[in-house]
Structures are given as structure tokens and as C-alpha cells.
Amino acid sequence: MSPLFSRWIASSAAAAALAALAGGCATPLESARANFDLGRLEQAEASLHPDRVREEDRVLCLMERGAIRQARGDFEGSTRDFVAAADLIEQWETYSVSRGAASLAINDAALRYRGAPYERTLLHAMTALNHLALGHWENAAVEARRLLKTLDPETLDGYPDCAFARVVAGFCLEMIGDGSNARRQYEAAAALNPEARGVANSGRAGGSGELAVFVLLGRLPGGGSADSPPTGTPPRVEIEVPGFAPVSVQPLTDTLDLAFTTAQRELARRVAKTVARVMIKDQIAEEVRRSADNDFLGDLTLFVLIGLLERPDVRRWETLPRFLYAARLPYPNEPVPIRLRVRNPGGGLWQTMDLAPPTVCRGRTRILLYREIPPRLYY
Amino acid sequence: MKATIRVAMVAAAVAAGSGCRAFLARTTDVPVEETRHYTQRYDYADMRRISEEVARELIESPVLAREPEPPVMMIAGIENRTSQYVDTKNLSDRIRLLTFQSGRVRYVNEARREELMREQGYQAANVTREQQVAIGQQLGARYMITGSLAEMSQSSPRQVRLSRRKLNYYKLTVELTNLTTGEIVWMTEKEFAREASLPLIGW
Fold first, then answer.
1. β partners of residue B164
2. Nearest to residue A243, comparing CAs of A323, A159, A335?
3. What is the pTM of this model?
4. Distance from CA of A375 to the nearest CA of B (A)
5. Model ipTM over 0.90
6. What values do phi and psi take at A311, rounded to 5?
7. Hey, are the CB atoms on A96 and B84 less than 8 Å from each other?
8. Rg for chain B (alpha carbons), in Å?
């Protein structure tokens, strides 16, 4: 390595470190999440624009904004974001050698974020829910088929399956009359979580109609917190329709569980890559020290490359709901309001929500999508 | 150092000479009859081709040959059973256009029925008797066109490789139902498959 080149490496590393330090200010993603936590959904949405984030984080930005828009009830806007995110994920399937090399010299945040497998599955599940909330049955089924591709055993490759996503897919297929494929998904969901058996059959009783409810509670903790598995019993949701007995359900999926299992699955690969990267960085610093014949320059390079730039990639879709519920229950043929109660594992009441009668229906099945808006978080 | 500058200059000259068009924004008109596929997915060229084939078969079908005069039809829609956001209305609109232009069939405008009724109501209330359209004299369709577009996809299995092959199979089924009897009197099916190879490693 020539002295000129070694100085160039040292100055590049310093510039990258400065950029990293400057990036320490709140990013659009961080401020959007902070606003989301405070229930300031308009501000949260306004802080996010795919053109204002690094290209590497564009998918994450679209997923976060889509979830915020969904929480605001802007199902069309949310769908546009989710579909754009899914398109980018597909476009970025080709591994970029240049970004791969950069991730070996800097850190994994230099790679384009394509979402963890469970995030890619839930991206389609959330889009399908948007379509259901809009009464776009065929489009919901399109998303159900996309979702099922992500759950194909070969695509999944040992990553966790998702009972809630399978129930959503089954319901979407049922809504377009594809009963046999719907049943397969309900069965697969029940194998993952017996609670899903409750949604395999219509909720109609006697001459009543039916209410299909999808409840999304809380939000997933930040990327650094998946190191321990979720503990404790999750909250129960009680759905009360006038004239019928209340129905109480457990979540079909805890997304923290999916995040934890995914992190465990990737642990060995991440450790191996980090070790390799640290060795490469050490070698670069050694080369700089030797060729420039300057220990300070070598130490500075090492400090910048490892001390400042070496950090774990904790990117994660954080506005994704934590607990995902689905239920089907009897509902009168005339629209009536619905009451949701969130109870803690001991049965104590955490929250009561009174909701207007759902307006979207398919035949005698009414659809209700409820996304809890922060700050009412349950974890 | 001089060698580095020389290499850089040669590289710049090669880039300027060979690929400069790639750096310019430009637009080009493409004849719609020309078939271009960039991915394995259903695209406009497929829409044009299969709608033309279906329309031609329908026009030449024995059902229409037996009709003494062009029968009135309506299109109830083509169901999208794929994993793509396919505008199947586009497909049915084109089938309607091509069959309509043949003069062998007539159509009622079922998609604009609400607007039609509103306009008739408006005329009944506000337009002079001489200029009012007659009410209750709409044509009833004798046949209904329905269909579905289905997809099946495959991709090459996981293995050490530089590219991934993806194969999509599409099948359009269109049927004609006699609205009096409920009998399906004519059916056709168009199918095609396309494979694309996508690099797994790029710059």
C-alpha cells in the first residue's frame, strides 16, 4: 500500500466517521417513531418521506409510513406505501457487490434493508387488511397470494411462520370464494397456534350475520431489544356486540416472538460477519500504519473503523403492531356499535374502546380492522 | 501517479464514447404491436394478444353464427386470481371493443347503469316531453361474459448459482352464459408461460 493510498484510506475513514456522527442526530425514522409513540400521527407521517432517507432505508421508511397511515385510517395511502415497499424488496433481490463490500468495511447498515422474513410476510398481511377495510376483495386476495409465497417452505428456509398472516390469507381467499385454499391456511394457522381454530369457521349463529375482527395492538420494541424472548402472558381482547355474548381472544401472533426467533436464526451469521469485518478493519489499520510509517495514523484509522463505525444493524419495522388478533363472531343483520376491551392476563381491565358499526361488508360478513393508536401500549 | 491519471483518462474516454447515452434522460415511442417483455410477469403485450384471440374466437363461435341478428351481451367481469395487481377491467374492455367493432354483438352498458338511471330521472323531471327519452325500454342482455385470469409460478431451487430463474404460467378462461337458461354456451381458454432469469449478484 502506498503512503498516498494509506492517507486516502485514513481520511476516507475519518469522513465516514464524521458522517456517522452527524447521523447521530434524530433521523426522520426516529422522529417519526417518537411522534407515533406520542400519538401524534400527522407529525409522524409528515416526518417520513422516502426521498429524505438514505436509499438503504427506503423500504423501512415506506413500511413505517404505511403503518402510520394505516393507524390514521388512510388505508389507500398505506396500501400505496406497502406496495411500493414490496416492489423495492423484489427489485433489491439482486445482491449488490459494492454494498456488500462497503458493509464489510463499514457496517451492515451500508446494506439495503429488505426487511426480515417475518416483516416481508406481515407487509403483505397489512396490505391485505387495508384492502379488506376498503372492501377491495380481489386485491386482498392478490396480497394473500403474495403473502403465501413468503411462507413457502423454501422461501421461509427455517425462519418463523406466522399464524396471523395465514389467517388473514385464508380469510381473503374465503372472501373471493376460494374455500378450499382458505381452509388449508386456517389449518396451517391452527397448527401454529390453536387459538386460530376460532377463526376457521363462520361466526354466524342462527339467522345472524357475522363480524370478522382484526385487532392490532401495541408496537414492536426497537431493534436492539430482540435479544430476549417475550415474557409473560399477552393481553386478551374482549369483543362485545349488543345482543350476543362477549368473545374473548388471545393474540394469534406476537411479533416480538417472530423478531426474537429471527434474530436467533441469524445470530451465527451475524457473529461470523462481524468477526470477519473486525479482522478486515484491523488489517486495513495495520496497512495504513505500516505504509505511512505513522503509528498515530494507524491508531486513528483503527479507532474510526472499529470504535466509531462498528455498530450492529438494529434496523427494524418498529411501527409494526406487537399483538395481532383475529376473531369471527355473530353480528346482527343491522349495523350496531362494537365495544372492545383489552384485559391484562389477570383479567383486569386495561382499556375500553367503543367503535362505530363497521360499514364494509361482503354478503352478511362485516369487516372491522382496529389498529390501536399510541400512547396506549401494552408491553 | 502519472500512470493513475492516464488510466483514469482512458476510463473516462471509454465511458464517454460508449455509454454516454445511458447518462441522458430520453423518451422513445414504442409501437404497441411490438412485443417486449422485461420480466416474467403478465404485461400489456399479453393483454393485447389474449384479448384479441378471445375476441376472434367469440366472433367466430357457432353460438353467434346461429343467432339471426347480433345478440345483446353484458360483461360481468374477469376475476383476477393472480398475485399481481392486474387490471382485468382493461382486458374485458378490450374484448368488448373488438367484438363490438366486428358488428356481430351488441352490448348494454352495465357499468354505467346508475348514471343512466340518474339521467333518465333527471330528464323525466326537467326535460320537455318531446325531448325526453322513453323510460322502461332498455335492452335486456341475452348473454353474459365472465372469466378469470389465473397464475401459477415457480422459481429455481436454492443452490449455488449466479442467477435465479422465475417462471410464471397464466391462464385466461372466458365463458359465455345464456341469461335465460343459465347454461354456459361457449368457453375458451388462453394460456402462456414465461421464464425470466434474474441475476443474483450485481454491482
1. B198
2. A335
3. 0.85
4. 35
5. no
6. -145, 150
7. no
8. 26
